[in-house]
Design brief:
The protein is an alpha+beta fold. It has 4 helices and 9 strands; from the N terminus they run αββββαββααβββ. The protein starts with 12 loop residues before the first helix and ends with a strand. The structure holds flavin mononucleotide. Flavin mononucleotide binds next to strand 2, strand 4 and helix 2. One of its GO terms (molecular function) is pyridoxamine phosphate oxidase activity.
Amino acid sequence: MTGEQLPAFRDDLELTLAECWRLLQEGATSRHSAFHVPTVATLDEHGLPELRTMVLRAAEPERRLLRFHTDRRSAKIAQVARSPAGAIHIYDKPSGIQLRLAASLSIEMDGDEVEAAWDASRSFSRICYRVTKAPGAEVEHPDAVAFDHDAADEGRGQFCILLARVHRIEWLHLAHAGHRRAVFELNDEDAAEAEWTGRWLVP
Ligand SMILES: Cc1cc2nc3c(=O)[nH]c(=O)nc-3n(C[C@H](O)[C@H](O)[C@H](O)COP(=O)(O)O)c2cc1C
């Protein structure tokens, strides 16, 4: 007996899947959570993976959706337009939990969801979207990065959302009592009512 309190989800696939989405939802609201800043992968023009950290803004288990905010001039936009193939990675050291998600990515520039996301964004976050050159553009000197602080739209014209529709979740939980690894896949990726099927894997 180690006296270690074992989580209820440990030997239960349904509870493990619920824990995945609980952690993602917590990540969207708590900046102290490791799930707040996942690594998002896209494919570049050569079909090679490109990774970057992004702030997770929303997680909706019902729609299997994660939402991120970005600048529509950034390199990842053209990459997503070319290929929707995406992957997301998170590792939370305190809990020993790693999530690896496969997702179909899309960019939304207009519409209710984009307006709501912009309306909810803080004025501090909006400053990024007022940078005059495209993110990733070369500059002579770091001080040459300019912002249009008088932009009538406060930068809304450069703002967009990146949606990740998750179709595979791989869970890894490192624990003294024994590691756990599971994969969850959809029975029909395209169906609105698609159901997750989980299987245990050798960690
Ligand atoms: C902690 C952290 C949070 C970040 N959040 C975002 C974000 O929410 N959206 C974003 O576009 N870039 C974010 N970035 C910057 C990206 O990692 C990346 O450098 C930038 O988006 C350019 O990527 P791209 O050239 O592949 O488009 C963040 C970086 C860090 C370190």
